[in-house]
């Protein structure tokens, strides 16, 4: 059972990284859909490029075993913001995509949350603080 869990978590890490990386070409090439999204939320072009860079960093960090937890936290923040933009400004469907971007954001957020939960014990100093609080 432990082997299945190990490979499932590796799969989730890869899924998050792949989703983050595949969206980078839209952000970095100023694809019209990406420009539309970031213009609508008032973050074009600085936000589009900055978030693209942060997503690239998160996708690398989540794949490195020692920094998986930090990549997951960064992903949770970035994608949490994207979900909020969908729920407040953009709407679920953007430019007739049928809600695909929103669904990908939900999948990424859920996957990163599961990865983080399973990596929480590897956060530096977290165990020391938890030990002091409980003793």
From TrEMBL:
It is a multi-pass membrane protein. It is found in: Membrane. GO terms for cellular component: membrane. The chain crosses the membrane at residues 7-26, 46-64, 71-92, 98-117. InterPro entries: DoxX. The keyword Transmembrane applies. It comes from the Bacteria. This is DoxX family protein.
């Amino acid at each position: 059972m432990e082997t299945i869990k190990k490979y499932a978590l590796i799969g989730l890490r890869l899924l998050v990284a792949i989703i983050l990386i595949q969206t980078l070409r839209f952000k970095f090439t100023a694809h019209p859909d990406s420009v539309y999204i970031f213009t609508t939320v008032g973050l074009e072009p600085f936000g589009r490029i900055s978030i693209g860079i942060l997503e690239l960093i998160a996708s690398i960090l989540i794949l490195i075993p020692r920094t998986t937890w930090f990549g997951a936290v960064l992903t949770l923040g970035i994608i949490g913001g994207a979900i909020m933009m969908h729920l407040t400004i953009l709407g679920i469907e953007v430019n007739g995509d049928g809600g695909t971007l929103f669904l990908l954001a939900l999948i990424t957020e859920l996957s990163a949350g599961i990865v983080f939960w399973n990596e929480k014990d590897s956060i530096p100093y977290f165990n020391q603080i938890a030990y002091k609080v409980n003793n």
